[in-house]
Amino acid sequence: MSHFIKWMAHTIRFPDKKINHALLLAGGEGIGKDLLFHAFFKMLGNQHKSIHGSMLLDNFNDFIVGTKNIHINELEMGDHREAKVVTNKLKPYCTAPPTTLRVNPKNVKSFQIQNLCNVTIFSNNALPLVVSRDTRRYYAVWSDMTPNGADGEILPEWRKYFNEIWEWMDNGGGWQAISHYLMTQVDLSDFNPGESPRVTEFMRDMREASADPVGEAVREVIQKRHSLFESDILTIDDAHRSLRSAVSSSDMLNSVKYLPSIQILGKIMRQEQIGIKIRVVKDGVEKQLWIIRNHETLRHNTPGELLRIYENNMEKIRTQGTSPILTLVSGESL
Q1: Residue range of the domain that includes 305
Q2: What is the domain count for the chain?
Q3: Which of 210, 234, 250 is the last residue of a domain?
Q4: Which of 147, 176, 210 finishes a domain?
Q5: DSSP code per residue over 56-113
Q6: What are φ and ψ of residue 185, in 5° steps?
Q7: Are 249 and 238 in contact (CB under 8 A)?
Q8: 123 forms bridges with which residues in the sheet?
């Protein structure tokens, strides 16, 4: 909660500064998400715009003009493909660069504005966004609070609490008191608007749930050292051929309905941060190698040494069949 408060206070006090990550609050219906941000939204007045998550699928985005805070209410993207589109649309709003944003109004020529907007997101969904394993654009929090009883109705004690606090908020000087607190009392000495937020448990869960099924299958065959994945270094052709062999077997935990092309497999491996790609040249011909394990040891080798390790590994795997695990460093077998 401390990070939420500092984020709001900084947005109010420094409207000319962009915070380089969005706030994402998710949880069940009726837990008080609106209540938590009510005073903050009122302070911003017409510089606060609230849109439904589905609007991000549209090509028109004039809601960002004159807006300090874009609030995405009820981000519920059940379709995985739509969730990826929404996530990509959010990227430029959540971070800078880009330093400017392109505005596409209806029936008006597009134009550029300075990228100073911040973003808040509410969702009832356990996977509101499809995120990569290295994304740091969101400070994401999930609330397990359950104000409803077994019948789905709000419990009497919670109804009483919310009624009282909303009365105080709107008619008892509540939002004004919170505004004064955000403006004058919150210590921002350790808040860096350009710094990536810490990775929360909810963010880790989203990263895991967002993982591409093909990427998960590749991780599995790497762990099992299936076929040519026995080598610590291989080419994308080797990976594609061995993955196809593994997918057709019956011992895979991660099912893959469609095996992508070699080119797409390489893109998935880069996106999922599986291995390190190295370019080597032999006899004027470029070859791309992937280090899939023992990165810290192997990355100190030169491209030429890595090529020799790869060639030795492939030769031993092909001649020995299901050979013992090979650990090769600097081109020599240990």
Answers
A1: 213-333
A2: 2
A3: 210
A4: 210
A5: GGSS--GGGTT-SEEEEE-----SHHHHHHHHHHHHHHHS-SSSEEEE--TTS--EEE
A6: -105, -25
A7: no
A8: 26
Asked if 265 and 298 sit in the same domain, the reply is yes
Euclidean distance between CA atoms 109 and 10, whole angstroms = 33
Q: What are 233's two structure tokens?
A: 């270094």
| Residue burial 71-98, b: 16+ Cβ < 10 Å; e: rest | bbbbbbbeeeebbeebbeebebbbbbee
* Contacts of 59 by beta carbon, 8 Å cutoff, 6+ apart: 104
Say which CATH number the domain at 138 has.
3.40.50.300
Q: Is 329 helix (H, G, I), strand (E, B) or coil?
A: strand
* pTM given for the model: 0.72
51 and 83 fall within a common domain: yes
Note the pLDDT tens digit of each residue in 163-216: 999 999 999 999 999 999 999 999 999 999 999 999 999 998 888 878 778 888
CA distance 128 to 108: 32
Name the residue type at position 194: G
